[in-house]
Amino acid sequence: MKHYILVLLALVLAVVAEAAPPKLQLDLAAFRNLDIGRKGGVLELYATVDGNSLTYQRRAPKAFQASAVLTLEVLKADGQIVYSEVIKLKPPVLKDTTQAIKNPMSFQKRVVLPDGTYTVRGQVRDQYKAGGNRIVDVPLLMQFDQPGLRLSDVAVLAKAPSRSPADTNFNRGGYLLIRTPGGLYGRGADQLFAYAELYNAPTEQTLTTKYRLRLVGGTKDAAAGTGTAKGVSGSPHLILVDMDITKLPAGEYDLIVEVRGAKNKLLASKTTRVLRQPDTYAPAAASIRL
Q1: Which pLDDT band, with edges at 50, 70 and 90, does 198 fall under?
Q2: What is the pLDDT of residues 95-104, one digit of tens each?
Q3: In the record, which residues are listed under signal peptide (predicted)?
Q4: Is the CB of residue 149 less than 8 Å from the CB of residue 243?
Q5: Of 2, 69, 260, 268, which has the maximum CB count within 10 A?
Q6: 147-281: which CATH topology?
Q7: What's the topology of domain 21-145?
């Protein structure tokens, strides 16, 4: 009797897993609009769909492909939609669908928004499997038109920022920025990188930056580093974070980025979430569209 119950439970779990919608990760970073003639800021929206949660359909002999339909929206506090787009994501064709790891798919979009409170909504469904939509809502506050020092959000990166003159959704401040979905640093990712911008600081002044990692809810630094933020005429101060996390234990951490002035006075601070999983293989998301 016990054997039959276990078999029935396994079948139920298999059916639930089969019907589950694809997994979706939304990462947001808000920056001031570099066009000084326009108020507000620029939202960098990075959506990642887990390739392992999709159904691969045979397209030809030894050729299988998945397809996900992604809907992205930005809503004002009153529910009004100010941005909406539907994107179809298709990963590379596979010869063998039994492989354990299927790379994720990502889509990055820049949306110009005035200051205000918003909700960023992502919906994804598997085109080849019935199971409903996965809906993810993330709150967003744009606040760049006020006077005084302003620190952008912190973009967590998979690779070190590299100098690039290109003008794409992946470039900012003269650097090519490759995001790491969900702030995840997995197997072999032993260096943490991040990027931020400081606004309204005197151009001639070089400021000290401090960054630290703390377990969520903790009070002690698990890792820390320092750097500088130097302004360029007509541009914000750039903050580039580079930390060795080789010895950082697995866990969920707050990455705290601080800007300090004379006598170590705290001028601005921002916090974002980082996930350290050294035993997990975490391939960088494949960028489907700019």
Answers
A1: very high
A2: 887 766 678 8
A3: 1-19
A4: no
A5: 268
A6: Immunoglobulin-like (2.60.40)
A7: Immunoglobulin-like (2.60.40)
